[in-house]
Specification:
CATH class: Mainly Beta
Strand content: 35-45%
Largest sheet: 6 strands, antiparallel, barrel
Helix content: 10-25%
Distance between the termini: 27 Å
CATH topology: Pnp Oxidase, Chain A
Number of domains: 1
Number of strands: 8
Shape: globular
Radius of gyration: 16 Å
Order of helices and strands: HEEEHEEHEEE
Structural class: alpha+beta
CATH superfamily: Electron Transport, Fmn-binding Protein, Chain A
Number of helices: 3
CATH architecture: Roll
Strand order of the largest sheet: 1-2-3-6-5-4
Amino acid sequence: MAEEPRSKAERKADVLAKLSAPVADAWVATADGDEPHLVPLTIAWFGERVLLATDTGSPTGRNLAAHGRVRVALGGTRDVVMIDAVLERTIPVAESGPAGEAYAAQNDWDPRTAGDSYAFLVLRPERVQAWREVNELAGRTLMRDGVWLV
């Protein structure tokens, strides 16, 4: 039997805990025309933004540079966080400053050591949804148009 649905405030707190957890792994989906691309990546939460680190020549890097849209998913099928975001900027690892420091502090890998082809992709969330069971589908949208609804 499913637990009672969480309030929006509880869901937001759970989302922020997942985003800022050590070594936060996520599924990252981009597309190039009709060709979808899905890859597991480790993310960081920095200044209300999702940070990805990837080779700019990878499908994720190329798709984001060309189209600027991404979907990031965290959690299992019974504790979902879904984030639709836009690429705000790309920061070469050598110029990453506080963003690079924050990413390395949250994760078990420092992309600043991976070479000049790597960059941090700064994603601005536009929509955030979170739910566990069917009883949380209503009210699952916690952010719309980049504004928290909580």
